[in-house]
Amino acid sequence: MAPRLGTVGPVGREPAYEIAPGVWRIPVMTDDAINAFAFVEDDGQVTLLDAGLPYTGRRVSAGLRHLGSDVSEVTRILVTHAHNDHAGGIARVVSASGAPVLAHGSDAGYLQAGRVPPIGPQTRARRAWEILGRYRAVPVSATVADGETVAGGLRAVHTPGHTPGHLSWLHEPTATLITGDAVHFYRGEVRIGMRLYCHDVALNERSAHRLGDLDYDAVGFTHGPEIRRGGRAALRAFLAARG
Questions:
Q1: Mean pLDDT, residues 112-139
Q2: 22-75, pLDDT tens digit by residue?
Q3: How far out from the chain centre does Cα 84 lie?
Q4: Which of 134, 146, 163, 186 is deepest in the core (most CB within 10 A)?
Q5: CA–CA separation, 111 vs 82, rounded Å?
Q6: How far is CA 147 from CA 6, 19, 171, 234, in A?
Q7: What is the mean pLDDT of residues 72-101?
Q8: What pLDDT, in 10s, does the model give residues 179-195?
Q9: Cβ atoms 191, 239 nearer than 8 A
Q10: Strands across the sheet with 17-20, in order?
Q11: Whose CA is closest to 81, among 25, 143, 165, 138?
Q12: Confidence of residue 1 (pLDDT cuts 50, 70, 90)
């Protein structure tokens, strides 16, 4: 179900968009195809969530500069999941900043090996995906569990299915949910994440429904523009329609 008119953030070529106070979406590809996120605290600490593909580092850097920071100033890095379009650029940010990386334990091994988790039987391209999805190894500093809150008020929400350790993140100070790839916002509609790259399609569907039970207003998607107001209502309506 499409959200109400006027609630969707702009689609364009700005280096970053402020979803909520101190919460920024950084498009790492044109047309908002892939997004990273940055959370800026009052004391200037910057938490980066994902870092795009291995070759989209310039866009991450431009986004951070837009909000008055720099790659070298990143305080910590959070990960939604171990796919190369989200984790591929993390090693570069670690090299520049020395920032620790936090991820769910079920994806940590894949991140440290620089490879994607296996996808389910819904596609015959599993071997090609494993080869093409490789990226620079990510040095995971610590793992986080479902419900754990890290500095800055970000609560980890384990939403497995797209990958075993997929995390959505709830920024409690601003009531902003970052869905990761559990759900997308594509062509004006909320949609379940792509089946083609999914580790467990049925589990991902159940995880998506869990997001409707959380408390938030704004929603940021790792694919597509954000919903700045009424995001929970839009997501719940979409999920209810799926049964």
A1: 85
A2: 999 999 998 789 999 999 999 999 999 999 999 999 999 999 999 999 999 999
A3: 12
A4: 163
A5: 6
A6: 32, 23, 12, 23
A7: 98
A8: 999 999 877 788 888 77
A9: no
A10: 17-20, 23-27, 35-40, 46-49, 74-78, 101-104, 142-144
A11: 165
A12: very low
Question: What mean pLDDT is reported for the chain?
Answer: 92
Give me the amino acid identity at 201: V
Question: What mean pLDDT comes out for the span 222-237?
Answer: 93
Residue 167 and residue 159 in contact, taking contact as beta carbons nearer than 8 Å: yes
Can you read off the two tokens belonging to residue 156? 């980890």
Residue 107 to residue 111: CA distance in whole angstroms: 6
d(CA 120, CA 210): 21
- DSSP states of the chain as a string? -PPPTT-BPP-SS-S-EEEETTEEEEESSGGGSSEEEEEE-TTS-EEEE----TT-HHHHHHHHHHTT--GGGEEEEE-S-S-HHHHTTHHHHHHHH---EEEEHHHHHHHHHT-PPPP-TT-S-HHHHHHHT--PPP---EEE-TT-EETTTEEEEE-TTSSTT-EEEEETTTTEEE-TTSEEEETTEEEEPPGGG-S-HHHHHHHHHHHTTS--SEEE-SSS--B-SSHHHHHHHHHHHH-
Of 132, 91, 143, 119, nearest in space to 193 by CA: 119
